[in-house]
Amino acid sequence: MPGHLIRLRGAWERRDPAVPDAVPARVVLPLDRPLADAPFRLERRFGLPRPGPGESVRLRLEEVPGLVAVALNGQPLAQPAPGTTALTLEPGPALQRRNVLALDVDPSRWASPPETWGRVALEIGPEP
């Protein structure tokens, strides 16, 4: 049975790792065009989802070519291999009352610029 999705669309901040003190730009996912030719970081804050008994929370990322790293609350969750465009992660105890999800993206890893980029959601469903 598919889980309940909490889509993480709005309230993303795009940061340039080369200019850490710059004011981040607000973006909404999915993007309908590439953000930059250089690597960038997307960050989003969110609260603790409340799974019911026998349920768990998974992080689903789709249409994410060029994704280099995923971190939650400063802790690495994944470093996808080149060519990865989708993955599902189990954040487990890394989830807190308040959370920050960070996605590091390198456009040089795209075979070609995607038409859209970034479908990200929390999925609450039966424990695996």
How would you concisely characterize the structure shown here?
The protein is mostly beta strands and 128 residues long.
Describe the structure.
It is globular and about 45 Å long. The protein has strands at 4-7, 12-15, 25-27, 40-47, 55-62, 67-72, 75-78, 86-89, 98-105, 119-126. Strand 6 (67-72) and strand 7 (75-78) form a beta hairpin. The strands form 2 sheets. It has a 6-stranded antiparallel sheet with strand order 3-2-4-9-6-7, with no helix packed on it. With 128 residues, it is mainly β. 0% of the residues lie in helices and 45% in strands. The mean pLDDT is 90.
From the structure provided, what is the oligomeric state, counting identical versus distinct chains?
single chain
Which regions are unreliable across 5 or more consecutive residues at pLDDT < 50?
none
- H-E string: EEEEEEEEEE
Q: For the residues shown, what is the average pLDDT?
A: 90
How many β strands by DSSP?
10
Given helix and strand content, the structural type is mainly beta
Count of DSSP-assigned helices: 0
Order of strands across the widest beta sheet?
3-2-4-9-6-7
Rough shape?
Answer: globular
Q: Kindly report how far apart the N and C termini lie.
A: 11 Å
Task: Indicate the radius of gyration in whole angstroms.
Answer: 14 Å
Quick one: biggest sheet?
6 strands, antiparallel
Work out the strand percent.
Answer: 35-45%
What percent of residues adopt helix (DSSP H or I)? Answer: under 10%
